[in-house]
Amino acid sequence: MTGDEPQLRVSKIRNGTVIDHVAAGQALNVLAILDIDGSGGESVSVGMNVPSGRIERKDVVKVEGRELSPAEVDVLSLIAPEATINIIRDYEVVHKTRVQRPTSVTGVLECPNHSCITNAGEPVDSEFDVLDEGVRCRYCETIFREEIAAQIGT
Amino acid sequence: MRQDDLVSATGLARADVETVLDRAAEIAADPRSWRERHAGALLALCFFEPSTRTRMSFDAAMKRLGGDTVDMGPVESSSVKKGESLADTVQVIEGYADALVLRHPKEGAARMAAGYVDVPLINAGDGAGQHPSQTLLDLYTMREATGLDGVTVGMLGDLKYGRTVHSLAEALTEFDAEMHFVSPESLRLPESVRYDIEAAGGEVREHETLGAGAAGPRRAVRHAHPARAVPGRVRVPRGCR
């Protein structure tokens, strides 16, 4: 690497997970989907709008001390379909995968239909079937295709 | 959820519909021989929204078959007013009855409730979602009048919030029915219903007026939210004329 090339301003982690090639601007949504808000004690590094050869600008999320499972990260495909997951052990990448589109997601998104039973204070998690484009609520059957990130539960 | 729940028309197979309609025809032909068929059985009526026809028709049907009903009564005088959740309510009521009929203002309420009880649950309308029990009535009426194959069906009015239309349209995909939907732009079918019709191999023919494209349905279904669809009588809503 020459001195003229852009440098990532996020340090390496020793053990944990690096979520790379996240669409620019989606890093905080990635953390929300993964329910990482700092309360779990993980060290989290976030790079936003980092230059990337593949997608021009990308976000990067590094979670120290936690290896995310495929089931945990596949839901990211809804907002970051190009994301790659790197499992890091002792500073080395020991496993690298692309996110896979899941068939359903549970408890992650809020149904945008305010008349849906999942928004009525009932003891039920939201459940969505993942379509080719968009997702569909299993309860009220509402389909939404855009701004899925805006429906991430907090 | 049980296989004998009826929460949506989406999963209604043609064979199942025909089984129900055939049985209804048998009862209609000789109601006396069915008078004790459900003797000793209790049907719970859980109506969280006003209803006259649906509530009384379930009540009458159960009693005509020898069974009885237990009615939750008005929401205002139930534990719902004390903040009890729907999930808690149906779990209590299932202890009193052999099956539940549920009407609720929230979409998806029947599907959720069915997941909380071990007795069969019938959706008698959930918000602007589904009304599959009404669909069975509509199909029965249509079969008697015209048959269900080789027909052209027009649905008019508030197609966006009309739960009876949603269920009927999805159920008709199991039959050889050409469907036309007439409504103002703002009251078009929801995307979920159009998705299901097309996924089943059907075609969604939408019109804003009763013009040439929508002409010629052999059987028209009026819909006037929040009432039910009534085959055979057409009332063209303002905006569709």
Task: Please describe what this structure looks like.
The complex is a heterodimer of chains A (about 150) and B (about 240). Chain A is mainly beta and about 150 residues long. Chain A has helices at about 25-35, 70-75, and strands at about 15-25, 45-50, 55-65, 85-90, 90-100, 105, 125-130, 135, 145. Chain A folds into 2 domains: about 15-100, 2-Layer Sandwich (Alpha-Beta Plaits); about 105-150, Aspartate carbamoyltransferase regulatory subunit, C-terminal domain (SH3 type barrels, Roll), CATH 2.30.30.20. Chain A is about 10% helix and about 35% strand. With about 240 residues, chain B is of the alpha/beta class. Chain B has 7 helices and 9 strands; from the N terminus they run αβαβαβαβαβαβαβββ. A 5-stranded mixed sheet of chain B has the order 7-6-5-8-9. In chain B, about 30% of the residues lie in helices and about 20% in strands. The termini of chain B are far apart. Chains A and B meet through loops of A and helix 4 and helix 7 of B.
